[in-house]
Amino acid sequence: MQTSKTRTSFYRRLYVAWLIDSGQAVSVPALMDATGMPRRTAQDTLAALAELDIDCQFEQNQGERNNAGHYQIRDWGPIDKRWIAANLQQIKTTLGYP
User: Fold this and answer.
1) CB of 28 within 8 A of CB of 35?
2) Which Gene3D superfamilies does this UniProt record tie to the protein (predicted)?
3) All structural domains of the chain
């Protein structure tokens, strides 16, 4: 069965938010390493989290310059992160991630 672009886009956003919230990938380079996404896709996905009412903010490291810091999920909005954890393997399989 072919997976729709809508589903893969939705799952990609959920997975990126989960990676950030779990501390496994909290920067664009870390997201790229964890998923194999190109930089622009990772950046676009981060920006698109707001469309799901997921509040993801960049936290600048104290005393650092040039965007040194990390992303943090402040609010999941209407998304139940327990559902993501329970369905993580299905999400990764649908997206083609190991």
Assistant:
1) no
2) Winged helix-like DNA-binding domain superfamily/Winged helix DNA-binding domain (1.10.10.10)
3) 3-92 (1.10.10.10)
The reported pTM is 0.91
C-beta of residue 15 within 8 angstroms of C-beta of residue 45: no
Range in 52-56, 66-70, 90-94 with the lowest mean pLDDT: 66-70
Q: Express each pLDDT in 5-20 by its tens digit.
A: 999 999 999 999 999 9
Residue written as token pair 């707001």: 50
